[in-house]
Amino acid sequence: MTDPNDLLALEELELDLFVTALDRRYGYDFSGYSRASLTRRVRNLQTQFRAPTISALTDLLLHHPDRVADAISNLSVPVSEFFRDPHVFRALKEKVFPILSSYPAINIWQAGCAHGQEVYSLAILLMEAGLYERARIYATDISADALARAREGIFPLQDAREASRRYLDSGGALSFSDYYHARYDFLKLDERLISHVTFAEHNLVTDAVFCEAHLILCRNVLIYFSNPLQDRVLGMFADSLVRGGFLCIGTRENLQFSAAREKFQVLDLDAQLYRRKSGG
After folding, report:
1. pLDDT value, residue 253
2. Statement: the pTM of the whole predicted model exceeds 0.85
């Protein structure tokens, strides 16, 4: 009878080889991701690709580069929704937008934008605040597939009802339906909402500062990273922000144990909204 501990040890070895192979062959480094989360996602990928073992999955991806984009899309967990956590968007509108209005041009970095729902949500509120025309939103993600879907701006119409409620709870001034056209079972967002958006691939694990930003949003991405990787990414965000710039992270995340915490002051703890200190 096979010892369960031997099987677990073998899976750990296979996972190490999988991570090394993706990095060396394609430049995607998952070594800093939370081990438990990565293991779950790789197991799910095994099922999807019908690979009996992680080693078989590694072999498949090494010899079939055309399958890599799909794999990365699943490993990077591109999950989002319109106006997720409405109190966060209301805090941005009430506490951040008035300060951003003092700048002649506004750079916003939405890191880990997934399928783009939060990008469009932010664009709507910026438009209603009269700030969109002077703003540039840089929406980045590791997944080319996720970015392609975000650019399309097409989403299931069944999402609209809950999105409308969250939009109003976020402080929306009109109706969410004013920003899309419905056809069949899908909604197509108004093209105006991406007229000031630049979509680009960016790997938070390996890539450097993307832009000088007045506001950075990276929500529910850090929870999948190990503590050292979180520290690296948060340090990069601090270096990316102008003095007095703003950082918004996920409601399940915080800076309390990060080496970068000394560079920020809390603006709204419930919304996980921080401001870059002017000094240091």
Report:
1. 86
2. no
Written as one string, the DSSP assignment of the chain is: ---HHHHHHHHHHHHHHHHHHHHHHH----TTB-HHHHHHHHHHHHHHHT-SSHHHHHHHHHH-GGGHHHHHHHHT-----TTSSHHHHHHIIIIIHHHHTTSSSEEEEEES-TTSHHHHHHHHHHHHTT-GGGEEEEEEES-HHHHHHHHHTEEEGGGHHHHHHHHHHTT-SS-GGGGEEEETTEEEE-GGGGTTEEEEE--TTT------EEEEEE-SSGGGB-HHHHHHHHHHHHHHEEEEEEEEE-TT--STT-TTGGGEEEEETTTTEEEE-S--
d(Cα 178, Cα 114) in Å, to the nearest integer?
Answer: 23
With a CB cutoff of 8 Å and minimum separation 6, the contacts of 18 are 42, 54, 55, 57, 58
CA distance 209 to 274: 18
Average pLDDT over every residue of 51-76: 87
Q: Note the pLDDT tens digit of each residue in 166-215.
A: 999 999 999 999 999 998 899 999 999 999 999 999 888 888 777 899 99
Whether residue 147 contacts residue 201, with contact meaning beta carbons closer than 8 Å, is answered with yes
Per-residue CA distances from 58 to 45, 47, 63, 205, 212 (Å): 11, 13, 9, 20, 37
Q: Say how many C-beta atoms besides its own lie within 10 A of residue 194's C-beta.
A: 20
